[in-house]
Specification:
Elements lengths: L19 H6 L3 H17 L3 H7 L5 E6 L6 H4 L7 E6 L9 H13 L4 E7 L3 H8 L6 H15 L1 H4 L4 H21 L2 H8 L5 E7 L6 E3 L10 H11 L2
Parallel strand pairs: 1-2, 1-3, 3-4
Antiparallel strand pairs: 4-5
The protein binds zinc ion.
Zinc ion binds next to helix 6.
Length: 238
């Protein structure tokens, strides 16, 4: 096992010429320092915390959120390590052929037996902005095509908003509602419900400007509820 806190101690001699990028890469000591402080604070509250956690995890929630650095999953819901199983990608998408997301979901539902799947989007999402403007940003365009599909599906609901910022907010909300429906239609979730496993799927959105979560009221606890929850959540936005 690597010694804690020594990951970036190797530094080039001062007189050795190196490209600026290589010198820059060796200076993450502050993150190790932060890590020691964080671990110390947790151990102060519960000396056996990490020991207990190393033996097993039993999170009750699976979080599917955006990769955006401003939306740290555990922190915004006040949960400790071990309490939240997390999958994040650009624009919090649940794509039926994304084996990464599906594998996380299958592990969470079948093995960890989480009781809640939370799809959490956020206002001001850069991925959603790019999809709204049909901006060309590179490879990600192909991933964000799924958000453009949401935009095309809901047309006037989005373009009829008073401003572009409002259109973006609306697309962020609709994107979450669509992804909740996608979660509910996976074989993983449907089979869990078929065997009467307690499992609820929720759609939330986070405000970058106030740090608060909002429930989009699209919670589903059994497959037959999927369509009505979707319809009422979409209608509530208009
Ligand atoms: Zn985002």
């Amino acid at each position: 096992m690597a010694k804690a806190g020594t990951g970036s101690n190797i530094k080039p001699p001062q007189d050795l010429w190196l490209p600026a990028g290589l010198l820059f890469m060796g200076t993450l000591d502050h993150l190790f320092e932060n890590n020691r402080t964080w671990a110390g604070q947790i151990r102060q509250r519960d000396p056996d915390f990490f020991l207990k956690l190393s033996r097993q995890q039993s999170p009750e929630y699976l979080w599917i959120g955006c990769s955006d650095s401003r939306v740290p999953a555990n922190e915004i819901v006040g949960l400790l390590p071990g309490e939240l199983f997390v999958h994040r990608n650009v624009a919090n998408l649940v794509v039926h052929t994304d084996l990464n997301c599906l594998s996380v979901m299958q592990f969470a539902v079948d093995i960890l037996k989480v009781r809640h799947i939370i799809v959490c989007g956020h206002y001001g999402c850069s991925g959603v902005w790019a999809a709204l403007r049909q901006a060309r940003i590179g490879l990600s365009d192909n991933w964000l095509r799924h958000v453009q599909d949401v935009r095309a599906k809901h047309g006037q609901r989005i373009t009829g908003a008073p401003s572009e910022a409002d259109s973006c907010d609306r697309l962020c909300e609709l994107n979450v509602i669509e992804q909740v429906a996608n979660v509910c239609q996976t074989t993983i979730v449907r089979e869990a419900w078929e065997r009467r496993q307690a499992l609820a799927v929720h759609g939330w959105i986070y405000g970058l400007k106030d740090g608060l979560l909002r429930d989009l009221h699209t919670t589903v606890t059994a497959f037959p509820e999927t369509f009505t929850a979707y319809q009422s959540a979409v209608s509530a936005l208009t």
